[in-house]
What does this fold into?
Amino acid sequence: MTMDDFRKQIKFDGKWFNNRKLKQIERFIDQPGYSYYGIYDGDNLICYGAILTNHDNFINRKMDPNTAYLFDDYTNPYHRGKGLHRKIIAIREYEARKQGKSVTFAYVQSSNRASAKGFKRCGYVARIKLIYKQIGKNRPFKRKFIEL
It folds into this structure.
């Protein structure tokens, strides 16, 4: 996928895909190791997700060379409940295997029950829990990993 694919979606339906999401994607889409995949209904993007294969920005450390990080899953609200999340997970797992990756993982907020349910249905298991603590304006959150 390219930025043009995402820009077209704002014109199609700016409620589910807006400039804030577009700016987030612009930061990553052309970086080495990042790949975006989508599911379309005709010309309209209805679900997308991304893979990161060389560096984990979430915890700022190099990843194991055999791993791929699945992130930025999103399904248009009008198309939820149709199994698209599971399909976009399967597409990215397939692409990760083609790139020689043997492990895929994702971080899911505990409040995002739908995403957690989708990953569990695909065989993913919770390994850690992240706890956030607000510590100030310049460094708004501190992360703490807790093994499950």
Remarks:
- The chain has a mean pLDDT of 79.
- The chain has four helices and eight strands.
- The first helix runs from residue 3 to 12.
